[in-house]
Amino acid sequence: MPTSTPKLVLHHGSSALAICQAPLVPLPKTLSYPQEYTIRAPPGTDLWRKPPAVDIDNAPTLLINVPIDLHSFHSARVTVSADWNTLYDQGGLALFIPDEDTKKFLKTGVEFAFGEPHVGTVAASRWGDWSLVPTAATGKITIHVEREIDEKGERTSSLWVYLIDPQTGKKSGIREITWWFRHDIDDRVGEPASERPPQVLLVGLYAARPKVPEGTGRQEEELVVKFEGFEVTLFDD
């Protein structure tokens, strides 16, 4: 029988990988967190990987404290807001997949760049990339990620990032990460379901303030990011 909705636990950087060692447990098909959450990110925090040698992983994250079967993951969404005022201020959804040689991650939400808030997304395997999408919002958005289903109703290797219209609820696709579920696809070809080793992922929220704010007395000023309506859904099987 499904357990109750697991708690969110605060982590900093790679300490979160310990969750992956826990056994998989039955979960509700909808993990709902209706209360408001806050993450405080001090200057110098980030989740970023860029060649030849940048690999920063000290951003505070609120993660669901049990691993999720990668094959079961369907979607996640949250509404995020803050007083974004310093270059690269950011916060939103964070997903992690442990791998043989590194930790794959996706972060998507608000990021302050070029003097205004954008929808910022980074997907990282060996290295990360970065995309920015302008938004008419002044700093509060609802972001949604969802596994792609093909015309046959089969799950593909892609994860889509959507921006949700606050008035209509319409989803606008802004990014496709084509390889996110690669292990789930590769590991299942020609292999009986009973013999497939589960691949897990971690899902939660994050905030980061890579730069020190400008101005007298602001050297240690934290970015305070608020999250509302965090929800994760799983497939029925």
CATH class descriptor name: Mainly Beta
Encode the helix/strand succession as letters. Answer: EEEEEEEEEEEEEEEHEE
Q: Give the number of domains.
A: 1
User: What class do helices, strands and sheet pairing give?
Assistant: mainly beta
Give the DSSP E fraction (strand runs of 2 or more residues). Answer: over 45%
Indicate the CATH architecture.
Sandwich
Q: So how many helices?
A: 1
**CA-based gyration radius:** 17 Å
User: What characterizes the major β-sheet?
Assistant: 8 strands, antiparallel
Helical fraction equals under 10%
CATH fold annotation: Jelly Rolls
Distance between the termini: 13 Å
Say how many strands there are. Answer: 17
Uncertain runs with pLDDT below 50, 5 residues or more? none
Mean pLDDT: 91
Envelope shape? globular
Walkthrough of the structure:
This protein has 237 residues and is mainly beta. The strands form three sheets. Strands 1, 6, 7, 9, 10, 11, 12 and 16 form an eight-stranded antiparallel sheet that branches. Strands 2, 3, 8, 13, 14, 15 and 17 form a seven-stranded antiparallel sheet that branches. It starts with 7 loop residues before the first strand and ends with a strand. The chain has one helix and 17 strands. The chain has a single domain (8-234), classed as Sandwich (Jelly Rolls), CATH 2.60.120.200.
Write the layout of secondary structure elements.
Elements: E1 8-12, E2 30-33, E3 37-41, E4 47-50, E5 54-57, E6 60-64, E7 68-69, E8 73-82, E9 90-98, E10 103-113, E11 116-124, E12 131-134, E13 140-149, E14 155-164, E15 171-177, H1 182-186, E16 200-208, E17 223-234
Antiparallel strand pairs: 1-6, 2-17, 3-17, 4-5, 6-16, 7-16, 8-13, 8-17, 9-10, 9-16, 10-11, 11-12, 13-14, 14-15
Pfam family, one: DUF1349
